[in-house]
Amino acid sequence: MASVQFSGAGVGTAAFAAKGRASIEALRLPATVAVGKARPARRAFRGLVVKAATVVAPKYTTLKPLADRVLVKIKSSEEKTTGGILLPTTAQSKPQGGEVVAVGEGRTIGDKKVDISIQVGAQVVYSKYAGTEVELNDDNHLVLKEDDIIGILETDDVKDMKPLNDRVLIKVAEAEDKTPGGLLLTQTTKEKPSIGTVVAVGPGPLDEEGNRSPLVVSAGSTVLYSKYAGSEFKGTDGTNYIVLRVSDLMAVLS
């Protein structure tokens, strides 16, 4: 089966493996969630901030998120590189994808009730440091806001990803292989491109009345975006993609 590799920049996007990349197919998860025996809390580090999972006692059998929050079963960390090399625990990347196993009742904006737009069973990618980690039996979960979810993985190819809210999926332009003087550039010396073509757009942000505001760009637009914004992906054919908020777009090119 074809796979799609991820790499992180700015706010990360998916389960990373060698050089910060992993496959979308690896994010596919079983639909069942077991709640049982508590285990010692695990710690993850973000600079000097220590984040430990909250362990749910065995007497609790369900966890129902409230308001606009969702419960995501986290994909396990990659234990091997794509070449089959076993990774030590310290080298395993923190996963950023999983399966939605429960959703809140939504929220009220003005006089309007707004439901969660993500369905139970959806495979999603979320912001790297979002949410609160909860350990249920042998499985790690995240309770996070709907807006922290970057997109829904509808197929095994990132080009078919469905961005959420005010986010857009962009196919990144090819980096230049030569300098203006004809000097060949290596992969490490190529300048990072900040131009691309919009592949898909989210439904737009919610306004003060709870209605969706359409985005100012559409699929097919060529855009200039902030150089270090968003979350990067690699498609099955090696094509580079990025998902970012529409506020990170600087101009439409024509």
Task: Provide a descriptive summary of the structure in words.
- The protein is mainly beta.
- The chain folds into two domains: 61-80 and 94-153, 10 Kd Chaperonin, Protein Cpn10, Chain O; 156-253, GroES chaperonin (10 Kd Chaperonin, Protein Cpn10, Chain O).
- Helix content is 0%, strand content 34%.
- It contains no helices and 19 strands.
- An eight-stranded mixed sheet has the order 4-10-11-5-6-9-12-13, with no helix packed on it. Strands 1-17-18-14-15-16-19 form a seven-stranded antiparallel sheet, with no helix packed on it. It has a two-stranded antiparallel ribbon with strand order 2-3.
- Strand 10 (132-136) and strand 11 form a beta hairpin.
- It is globular and about 70 Å long.
Query: Which second-level CATH architecture of the largest domain applies?
Result: Roll
Count up the helices: 0
Proportion of β residues? 25-35%
Rg: 19 Å
Largest sheet: 8 strands, mixed
Distance between the first and last residues' Cα: 37 Å
